[in-house]
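Work Package 4 report. The design task specified in the project plan requires that, given a folded chain encoded as structure tokens, an amino acid be chosen for each position. We show below one input record used in the internal validation round.
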């Protein structure tokens, strides 16, 4: 059985945050989620996460995931260190297990890399294997020293390395593979006789070497994958790399992204082929975009489903559905639970909230449609307000097919406007409008002739 021990107990003091480091997000997902998913994607059957600082928040976030949590004890006199953290998962180090130790702050690690790493370890019959990387500037990293057979003979920390050893470009990533039984035995032999008074997992490599076991090294193809996050600066660096990966993935699958540098697409968003994404677009959460869509600049879409052939310009869409060949914007706002039918036009400065709008209907500009069911082929004029709130409760308005709502009308909910009903411009409607009826609700116009002359307004300022 393959088991992962994911080290996620670090306090992350350099983040200067109340949030546990591993819950900070990269392209919309917590750092730790990337490592868990990569491990699962590499067919690791059992995933054990070692938590410490902010453990309750971490457990709460991942409570639906099929993972095992073990808490690292906190208290005076405890040794701490990576070796101490790995010890918290010792019960899962079985006779026939392969244990991969992963860092909970390296979101760029790929499932394919973990899979190849485990295969290299197992097929090479290694007792321990270190994931290494070749860096032009290895400053700060532990150096990998190999013997004549190419096996690891020693890991030398930067501060302890000689001038010659510091010139070694191969470094320790902090990610390991072990025979479970040997890892368990070796952990019982490490000690904290060092300047930090901590137990180090690297000491296991030394023990395996001393006892004549075979220790290998697998060089990661892309050194960016081992990049850890300890500060907001490093978080931003990982965000940039992940953003580029995501955008390249979509472009490789037939999506045109005109300016990848200014396009933000979170992990998990899906986009159909031949869709065009303009600069300055943000796609977040559980969003899916269909084929042949045009998403123009300054648009943000969150947790929404956009069907094929939709055009959206400079608009905000949240938790909503837009059906085929509709147009949204510019400067429209679809608030949560809006459902826009096929070939609908939602135009300039129109706000829709918790409403269904039927096929071929249109609201061209400056309207508020809240808590409504709008039928097919309905015209909603400029300045129309669906007045849904009485100060205490929200009420719904139902507008039938082929209805016409004239400009600057107020529809006072609860209200029914039936099929083919017409509402005259400037009306305030409080009662049901029957099918085929014209409803006019205006105060009568009064013109007072000569009023300006009587008031003497023409002489003001002379």
């Amino acid at each position: 059985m393959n088991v992962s021990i994911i080290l996620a107990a670090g306090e992350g003091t350099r983040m200067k945050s109340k949030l546990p480091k591993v819950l900070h997000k990269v392209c919309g997902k917590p750092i730790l989620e990337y490592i868990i998913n990569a491990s699962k994607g590499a067919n690791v059957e059992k995933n054990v996460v070692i938590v410490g600082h902010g453990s309750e928040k971490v457990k709460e976030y991942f409570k639906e995931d099929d993972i095992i949590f073990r808490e690292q004890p906190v208290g005076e006199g405890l040794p701490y260190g990576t070796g101490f953290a790995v010890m918290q998962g010792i019960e899962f180090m079985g006779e026939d297990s392969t244990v991969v130790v992963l860092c909970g702050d390296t979101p760029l690690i790929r499932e394919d890399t973990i899979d190849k790493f485990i295969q290299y370890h197992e097929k090479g019959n290694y007792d321990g294997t270190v994931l290494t990387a070749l860096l032009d500037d290895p400053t700060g990293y532990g150096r990998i020293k190999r013997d004549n057979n190419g096996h690891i003979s020693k890991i030398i920390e930067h501060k302890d390395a000689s001038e010659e050893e510091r010139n070694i470009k191969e470094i320790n990533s902090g990610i390991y593979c072990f025979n479970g039984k040997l890892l368990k035995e070796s952990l019982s032999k490490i000690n904290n006789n060092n300047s930090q008074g901590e137990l180090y997992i690297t000491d296991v490599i030394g023990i395996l070497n001393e006892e004549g076991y075979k220790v290998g090294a697998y060089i990661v193809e892309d050194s960016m994958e081992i990049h850890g996050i300890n500060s907001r600066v490093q978080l931003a660096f990982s965000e940039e790399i992940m953003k580029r990966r995501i955008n390249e993935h979509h472009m490789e699958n037939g999506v045109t992204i005109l300016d990848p540098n200014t396009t933000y697409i979170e992990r998990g968003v899906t986009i159909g082929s031949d869709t065009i994404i303009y600069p300055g677009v943000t796609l977040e959460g559980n969003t899916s975009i269909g084929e042949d869509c045009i998403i123009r600049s300054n648009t943000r879409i969150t947790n929404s489903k956009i069907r094929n052939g939709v055009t959206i310009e400079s608009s905000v869409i949240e938790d909503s559905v837009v059906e085929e060949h509709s147009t949204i914007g510019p400067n429209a706002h679809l608030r949560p639970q809006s459902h826009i039918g096929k070939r609908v036009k939602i135009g300039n400065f129109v706000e829709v909230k918790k409403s269904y709008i039927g096929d071929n209907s249109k609201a061209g500009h400056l309207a508020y449609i809240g808590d409504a069911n709008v039928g097919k082929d309905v015209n909603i004029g400029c300045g129309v307000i669906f007045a849904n709130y009485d100060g205490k409760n929200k009420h719904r308005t139902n507008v039938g097919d082929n209805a016409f709502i004239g400009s600057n009308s107020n529809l006072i909910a609860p209200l029914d406007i039936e099929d083919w009903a017409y509402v005259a411009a400037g009306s305030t409607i409080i009662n049901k409008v029957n099918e085929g009826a014209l409803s006019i609700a205006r105060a009568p116009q009064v013109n007072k002739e000569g009023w300006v002359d009587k008031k003497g307004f023409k002489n003001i300022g002379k």
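Residues 232-252 form the longest helix (21 residues). Validation will be extended to a larger panel in the next phase.
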